[in-house]
């Protein structure tokens, strides 16, 4: 679990470095611009996100949850999935990519974390907060239970910080390791992650100590009786 968290932090740091380099043309090698890869930083009312233009998925989505900001009456039935106009059309995840793909549009920042007002909830339905997830047994079940677990931590802690995102992990075939993932859309456009992660940091304002946890789940149906360890 600790190795996973280190890897996640390293990935976020690398994304931040890439963002910083994006505007750096002060040396001879990058005189005419930074070639990429490009990661878009997106700041919404309930989350911040880094978007991967190559995979058409978020790199990560970061939240801050409190007892107060989880309160609200916004209803997800009044929100619709939509493409992100902040991303150039050539690099966007598209609504049609998910059509008959066999995958759910899985939230990284859950809609239930943004009940405070409808505008905030609608932002969770933008496709830069979404990645393809197996529906039955994962997005609609085990992943949703993990989302609730994170929300429930606010009953114990004053501040809960959560970073969620997709992973593309290797599998062994014979004596070799490969990274393989499906791509949905016609033409193929959006990568299907092999796994998803949540890294959680929680604390009370009067306490100098932090509670820390990280979880990586395969993008597949998971039996409800499987312990979250």
Question: How would you portray this structure in words?
Answer:
The chain has 229 residues and is α+β, with helices and mostly antiparallel strands. It contains four helices and twelve strands; from the N terminus they run H-E-E-E-H-E-H-E-H-E-E-E-E-E-E-E. The protein has helices at residues 2-22, 95-98, 118-123, 135-152, and strands at residues 39-43, 48-52, 57-65, 104-107, 130-133, 159-167, 171-173, 176-178, 183-184, 190-191, 195-203, 211-218. A hairpin with a 5-residue loop joins strand 9 and strand 10. It is globular and about 50 Å long. The model is unreliable at 13-22 (pLDDT under 50).
Shape: globular
Q: Approximately how much helix is present in the residues?
A: 10-25%
- What is the count of DSSP helices, taking H or I runs of 4+ residues? 4
What is the helix/strand order?
HEEEHEHEHEEEEEEE
Indicate the low-confidence ranges by residue numbers.
13-22
CA-based gyration radius: 18 Å
| Fraction of residues in β-strands | 25-35%
User: Distance between the terminal alpha carbons, to the nearest Å?
Assistant: 9 Å
Mean pLDDT: 91
Structural class category = alpha+beta
Largest sheet: 6 strands, antiparallel
Give the total of beta strands: 12
Order of strands in the sheet with most strands: 1-2-3-6-11-12
Quaternary structure type: single chain
What is shown here, in short?
The protein is 21% helix and 28% strand. With 229 residues, the chain is α+β, with helices and mostly antiparallel strands.
